[in-house]
Amino acid sequence: MLELYSEQTKCLVALDSIIFGFDGSKLKLLLVKRGIEESKNVWSLMGGWLQPNEGLDQAANRILENQTGLQNVYLEQVNTFGAPDRDPVERTVSVTYFALINVADYDLFNTKAEQAKWFDFDDLPELLFDHEQMVKNAIQRLRNKAAFHPLGFELLPEKFTLPQLQVLYEAIFDMPFDKRNFSRKILSSGLLTKLDEKQKGFSKKGAYLYKLNSQTSEKAASSILYFVPSIDSLL
Known about the structure:
2 domains; NUDIX_hydrolase_dom; 6-stranded mixed β-sheet; WH-like_DNA-bd_sf
């Protein structure tokens, strides 16, 4: 029995994170230079290696914290990439995750990566290896989840306005929403708590601030929330 193990070819396992951010107007992707890119115009996803004493989720969280200094970040496994020639250096299987970060929470000057930069999702540079396909898979997963569950709130500050929330979902789905219809649906979901505060500095009247209602969010996460007109149109 043990001979079956010893006869197998060993391969490396990498964890690569597709880190989405939102700056209040656009969906962004955090990319880094890891020193393995042959061209200065090629960027990489943030990642690292699985250690012998770790599970996959544990390793993904460790790598993200080591690279960004952030803890308790929303992190979800997306896919596995294992083409024999995907990494020209060594046979490597990569398990991908997507992470959701409020851009304001992440200080680029504190990263341990040699270079780190937020890129607008609609203006990405050339990516290393098969990272472009990883990103495509991750954005599709993000859209599928955000269409039915209150996932997008991870990208917002604790307090936000309805216009800010609508801009976020328009950025995620790359499509406009009818203002009145979006507000009606989101308010009827019971997800939000209206605060006795208004956003200052943007208009004379100001827009009321809201926050996620933690008492209803868990219940809503298990039900269908029609935030978008039709998820089929995005597939």
